[in-house]
Amino acid sequence: MRKKLLAIFNKLNLKDYSSYFSLLFIYTKINLKSQLAYKKAFFLQVFGMILNDLGFLILWALLFESFEESFKAKGIEFSAIALIWGFSASSFGLMHALFAGFRDLPRIIIEGKLDNYLLYPKNTLFLSGASFSDASAWGDLIYGYILFFIFLPKSITGFFLFTYFIIMAAMFFASILIMFSSLTFFIGNSEQIKETVFNAIVSFSTYPEKIYSNPFRIILYTFIPVGFGIYLPVRVITKFNLLLFIVATIVPTLLLLLSVFLFYRGLKKYESSNLIIMQG
């Protein structure tokens, strides 16, 4: 595996950002090939995750039926619940399908496994994320699109916006993981902090924005910025607004830049354990 990747790196010009797409494609292909080595297990994980997500939606459907008047009084339709569930699931799935390594960054740092990625030409952070894939995450990704085609009006524009913001929201989730994982460089193992914050954001991202009171929404756009990563994109998908489109693009991008800055700032403090684990 290591020799194969080095050969690939030699062919790629990593100063050209477009080459990262080629590299991501190669990593995804390798990860999928590895997962499909056990096809039954792979498809069971994917199908199992779709059923798991569907179970939550059924619970929401029962809740909506029982308290329909209360939901509608707040301007919440069941289609809005399905949309935010599908959008969050696909965003979460895309990030974990392509960059599952970000979820394990604290462990990778603590155990000195970053050495494994420092052997290659840049980008260390990109490689540590793309090297791993969660098979079940493909189920989350597919599930979101199933809900899109069932509950949203069919249009090319709607499909484009849904796909575009899934990518942006996946970037948002990745930024949170990178940012809080990078604390490991400065304070030691930040696994618990990272998981607590990330799980909180994922939980809030599955509830319609209108279910929260106005004061609490301020928190969701500041201290817990799920509003910019999830709620604004959902608003734009539902009813296009150019200003919100721009804001929902800029904020996740800035968060990603900040998280990358923190990671490489911490990388300078990284004390290599000299534990080089040869892959393959």
Structural class: mainly alpha
CA-based gyration radius: 20 Å
Percent in strands: under 5%
**Distance, first to last CA:** 5 Å
Secondary structure: number of strands: 0
Notes on the structure:
This protein is an all-alpha fold and 280 residues long. It has one domain. Residues 273-280 have low confidence and may be disordered. The chain has helices spanning 2-11, 18-35, 39-66, 68-73, 78-99, 105-110, 115-118, 124-130, 137-151, 156-181, 184-187, 191-204, 214-220, 226-238, 242-267.
Topology:
Blueprint (H helix, E strand, L loop, with lengths): L1 H10 L6 H18 L3 H28 L1 H6 L4 H22 L5 H6 L4 H4 L5 H7 L6 H15 L4 H26 L2 H4 L3 H14 L9 H7 L5 H13 L3 H26 L13
Helix pairs in contact: 3-5, 3-9, 5-9, 5-10, 10-12, 10-14, 10-15, 14-15
Brief rundown of the structure:
With 280 residues, this protein is an all-alpha fold.
